[in-house]
């Protein structure tokens, strides 16, 4: 993930948020096949936000 550009990370973040929404919807209607995927997506979102925050802070420090 660290090799991706800021634009790629933002795009992936949007995709993961959309997937998280769909997974929550499936969970509410009992159609979820892989419940662990919710946790994976949530953690991936956190990883991307952390990377974005690190990059923002390092850019401000310069």
UniProtKB/TrEMBL annotation:
GO molecular function, one term: structural constituent of ribosome
Organism domain of life: Bacteria
GO BP term, pick one: translation
Pfam families (alphabetical): Ribosomal_L29
Classification via SUPFAM superfamilies: Ribosomal protein L29 (L29p)
Record carries keyword Zinc: no
Swiss-Prot/TrEMBL keywords: Ribonucleoprotein, Ribosomal protein
Entries under NCBIfam families matching the protein: L29
Protein name: Large ribosomal subunit protein uL29
Record organism: Tsuneonella litorea
């Amino acid at each position: 993930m660290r090799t991706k550009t800021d634009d790629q990370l933002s795009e992936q973040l949007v995709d993961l948020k959309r997937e998280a929404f769909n997974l929550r919807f499936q969970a509410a209607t009992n159609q979820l096949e892989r419940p662990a995927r919710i946790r994976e997506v949530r953690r991936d979102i956190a990883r991307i936000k952390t990377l974005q925050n690190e990059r923002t802070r390092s850019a401000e420090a310069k």
